């Protein structure tokens, strides 16, 4: 085992070594790389003296070159700032000409943060105040921001470090600069102290600035349960409305957060219409039932709301509900009279749960994210109790609503469909083992698949516009994989002719897109790829492969690594080669491709061909499935015959896939 004491001893020994080379010889890049590693090890051990002694072997120019050399995404100087080694940072700034704006990769897994930032930004994030001062004193750009335009002072507000915020502001930091999403310093500060928020407001921060989604500092304060900040923001003129998908009153935001203390304060200290107050109590009741699993409290709040509606019997505030009922809500209807509301206490839990969903949809609207989230949540509760069809109904409806108010590329839609895939897999697994009697309904599969195909069509148009947002291609690839999952589900179900015809039409629609991932993988490639070598990993469906080919998928199309579908088939086969009985199934899949005319001798970027493996497995006689055209291409490649510029484009491309 190599412990720290061993490392310290070795480093101290290395520190007194003589220079290995003149700083101008031809090995300079390699030596800088080696020296960079050594310097980082001194930084990790907080050994300034050893660092000084080691760098004394180099002239000033090379010292600067070493400490500013970016290796493994970070220069030594950046690393010293990140780790809070103030004495080392000071030495590098004063003696080694450290570059204060040289960015390094900073990763915070807990915050899902991964970006290249400046030494000042990382020092603020790690709350190394002494280093922040050193950097500012040496001219660091106080406004240098991240890829999302988050400035050091905004980061300091997020870290709730009032001392650093004050220091940066005193030195010219701009507290009004939002990030690309509209997030402000004040919004970030709502997780910090009252003093920090007061400081920002007193220095001109707008309490009513909004993000691109319409969120304000008040929104964040209520979400964080900060009654003190709610009082403060109301006192300095905060708007009574915030946006979460749609515009709502802050009383309703407190209600859907389930915070009765903040709810009561807003109720008692703002002027509002009776209808808004009544809706607030009904939302608070729905939250008690759905989020807190407190049905008695929810019913109490609903009765309170109903009493307010009928406080004046001569002019009651009647509840307006839709004429039609919906199957997804079990055809339930909201209560409209005090008598009906009081009778809910004797109702079954399902009716009360549906009442909560109906109330939320009426007050917030079906486009509101909270409405959709609670429908998803209730579906999950049904799935957990093995009421799978109820879960399917609710999640299908949630996806339908989510499609109406989100871009086709939005990650939330990937989340919706991933839930669906997991649910249907669980249903099929439990159904095959006899644990449940419910069967997956083919109509549900076709309904969701049709929505997914429409989403892919819209997504394909988004991909034509640059620049693309982060994770756009990742989301598109996920949707392609989900499309394959739904095709698998369909061929495992017992569909009628009408459903099969409709499903085939949707498959044809998606194939017309010729959709591909960022790496050029089409549906046929993806359908033949598996991630796991485990025996329980699902095999590709031969019905899906045949359906894709019938719908026009090319068996010879290649991805960006020049892999044809057969290459991916062989790669997946190799992963499971030790699993009994899998060989024959993979052989059958390979044969489907071979019989449709795939070239077994084409090479990918690694110069791999499927042919050798297929021969090892005794699958084919090469000449039986190798055309004269293929043989000619191989002779051209093997003999090194010049063909570019001599062959037509189609023939040139054909020879290239054999290279």
Helices and strands, with pairings:
Layout: H1 4-15, H2 28-44, H3 48-55, H4 60-67, H5 76-83, H6 86-95, E1 104-108, E2 113-117, H7 119-125, H8 129-137, H9 152-158, H10 162-170, H11 185-189, H12 194-202, H13 217-223, H14 227-235, E3 241-244, E4 246-249, H15 250-257, H16 260-269, H17 274-290, H18 295-309, H19 338-343, H20 349-364, H21 369-384, H22 388-405, H23 411-432, H24 442-462, H25 472-492, H26 497-512, H27 523-527, H28 542-550, H29 565-575, H30 582-595, H31 610-616, H32 628-639, H33 649-656
Task: Please explain how this structure is put together.
It contains 33 helices and 4 strands. It is mostly helical. It is flat, with a radius of gyration of 32 Å. It comes from Mizuhopecten yessoensis. ANK repeats lie at residues 115-147, 148-180, 519-560. It holds the Pfam family Ank_2.
Give a summary of the structure in a few sentences:
The chain is an all-alpha fold.
The N- to C-terminal Cα distance equals 48 Å
Please tell me how large the radius of gyration is: 32 Å
Give the class-level CATH name of one domain: Mainly Alpha
Query: Count of DSSP E strands?
Result: 4
Fraction in helix: 55-70%
**Principal-axis shape:** flat
Keywords: ANK repeat, Repeat
Protein name: Protein fem-1-like C
Organism: Mizuhopecten yessoensis
InterPro entries: Ankyrin_rpt, Ankyrin_rpt-contain_sf
Features:
two-stranded antiparallel sheet; Serine Threonine Protein Phosphatase 5, Tetratricopeptide repeat; mainly alpha; single chain; 57% helix; disordered N terminus; 659 residues
């Amino acid at each position: 085992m190599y412990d720290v004491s061993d490392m310290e001893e070795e480093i101290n020994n290395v520190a007194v070594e003589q220079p290995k080379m003149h700083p101008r010889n031809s090995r300079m890049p390699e030596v800088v790389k080696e020296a960079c590693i050594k310097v980082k090890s001194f930084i990790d051990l907080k050994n300034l003296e050893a660092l000084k002694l080691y760098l004394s072997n180099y002239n000033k120019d090379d010292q600067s070159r070493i400490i500013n050399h970016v290796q493994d995404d970070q220069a030594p100087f950046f690393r010293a700032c990140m780790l809070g080694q103030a004495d080392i940072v000071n030495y590098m700034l004063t003696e080694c000409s450290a570059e204060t704006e040289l960015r390094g990769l900073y990763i915070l897994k807990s915050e899902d943060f991964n970006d290249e930032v400046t030494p000042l930004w990382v020092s603020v994030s790690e709350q190394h105040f002494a280093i922040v001062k050193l950097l500012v004193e040496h001219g660091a750009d106080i406004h240098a921001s991240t890829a999302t335009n988050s400035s050091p002072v905004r980061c300091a507000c997020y870290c709730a470090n009032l001392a650093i915020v004050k220091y940066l502001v005193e030195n010219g930091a701009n507290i009004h600069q939002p990030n690309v999403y509209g997030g402000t310093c004040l919004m970030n500060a709502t997780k910090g102290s009252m003093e920090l928020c007061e400081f920002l407001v007193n220095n001109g921060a707008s309490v009513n600035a909004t993000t691109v989604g319409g969120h304000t500092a008040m929104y964040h304060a209520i979400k964080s349960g900060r009654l003190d900040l709610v009082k403060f923001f109301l006192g300095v003129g905060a708007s009574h409305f915030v946006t979460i998908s749609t515009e709502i009153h802050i009383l309703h935001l407190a209600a859907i957060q389930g915070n009765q203390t903040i709810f009561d304060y807003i109720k008692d200290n703002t002027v509002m219409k009776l209808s808004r107050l009544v809706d607030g109590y009904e939302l608070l009741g729905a939250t008690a039932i759905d989020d807190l699993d407190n049905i008695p409290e929810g019913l109490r709040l609903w009765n309170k709301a109903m009493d307010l509606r009928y406080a004046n019997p001569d002019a009651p505030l009647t509840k307006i509900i839709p004429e039609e009922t919906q199957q997804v809500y079990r055809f339930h209807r909201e209560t409209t009279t005090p008598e009906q509301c009081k009778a809910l206490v004797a109702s079954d839990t399902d009716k009360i749960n549906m009442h909560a969903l109906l109330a939320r949809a009426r007050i917030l609207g079906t486009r509101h994210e909270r409405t959709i989230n609670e429908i998803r949540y209730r579906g999950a509760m049904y799935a957990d109790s093995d009421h799978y069809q109820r879960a399917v109904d609710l999640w299908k409806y949630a996806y339908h609503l989510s499609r109406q108010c989100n871009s086709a590329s939005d990650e939330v839609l990937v989340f919706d469909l991933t839930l669906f895939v997991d649910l249907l897999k669980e249903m099929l697994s439990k159904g095959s083992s006899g644990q449940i009697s419910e069967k997956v309904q083919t109509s549900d599969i076709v309904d969701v698949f049709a929505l997914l195909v429409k989403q892919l069509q819209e997504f394909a148009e988004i991909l034509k516009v640059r620049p693309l947002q982060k994770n756009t291609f990742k989301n598109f690839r996920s949707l392609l994989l989900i499309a394959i999952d739904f095709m698998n589900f369909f061929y495992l179900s017992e569909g009628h002719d009408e459903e099969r015809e409709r499903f085939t039409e949707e498959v044809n629609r998606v194939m017309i897109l010729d959709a591909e991932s960022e790496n050029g993988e089409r549906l046929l490639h993806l359908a033949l790829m598996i991630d796991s070598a485990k025996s329980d990993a699902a095999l590709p469906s031969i019905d899906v492969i045949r359906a894709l080919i019938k719908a026009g998928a090319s068996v010879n199309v290649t991805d960006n690594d020049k892999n044809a579908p057969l290459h991916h088939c062989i790669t997946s086969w190799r992963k499971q080669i030790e699993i009994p009985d899998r060989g024959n199934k993979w052989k059958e899949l390979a044969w489907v491709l071979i019989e449709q005319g795939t070239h077994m001798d084409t090479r990918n970027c690694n110069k791999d061909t499927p042919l050798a493996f297929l021969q090892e497995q005794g699958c084919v006689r090469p000449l039986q499935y190798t055309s004269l055209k293929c043989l000619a291409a191989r002779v051209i490649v093997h003999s090194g015959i010049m063909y570019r510029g001599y062959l037509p484009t189609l023939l040139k491309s054909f020879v290239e896939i054999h290279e």
